[in-house]
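Intended use. Records like the one below are meant for learning the mapping from a protein sequence to its folded structure. Do not use them to infer anything beyond what is encoded.
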Amino acid sequence: MSYKLINGDCLEVMPTLESGSVDAVITDPPYGIDFKSNGQWFTGAKSIHGDKTTELAEIVAKFYSGKTVMMFFSPYRPYNINWRNVLVWNKGGHVGIGGDRETCWKRDFELIGVRDNRPLNGFRDSAVLNFNAVLPPPSGHFAEKPVGLMAYLIRKLTNPGDTIIDPFMGSGSTIVAAIQEGRNAIGIERDADYFAIAQQRCLEATYQPSLFTPQPTQWEHVAMFGDD
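Structure written out for the chain above:
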């Protein structure tokens, strides 16, 4: 098993990779909502590159046509993608930012689209996934996803030895989960700060295997750095 981390723009990196070796795209792309953290969890205000439109997510989905694609998205700005399944991630009652407090219910959920997947592994579960969001996020990334949630999705959609790509890696939760679940993984992230965090988290994951999942006996760690 191996994982590869690439610091660069996914639109430039993806054409250089062997697409036939990728079994599934599992990622949390920009939502098209022009979000900014205002320094909530990370030092200094942070914006998400490409978050003014849904174009980046749609380009990636088209590039990997015919492959299993799983993406988080906002119900307020859905992607132009024909999903086979739409799941609801219930983030827990301890979160719920966004919207006016006096007139809006708490936004304590996100949607997950799944397309072109093979038969699901295990039981036919509920489409509502109850995984508490991590608050504050240990990595400092304001959109950090729980590793447990990503590991669950990886187990349902892929098999041991499959290769997963995350073109919008962020702080690396998907790649950490892939390592724990015995999958090969490729992570791409253009932000140098988040890339460094993902590197450290993935390195630690290779030495701290999941207590519940049989682990490969050896991991090959390959890190690549771009100009961004």
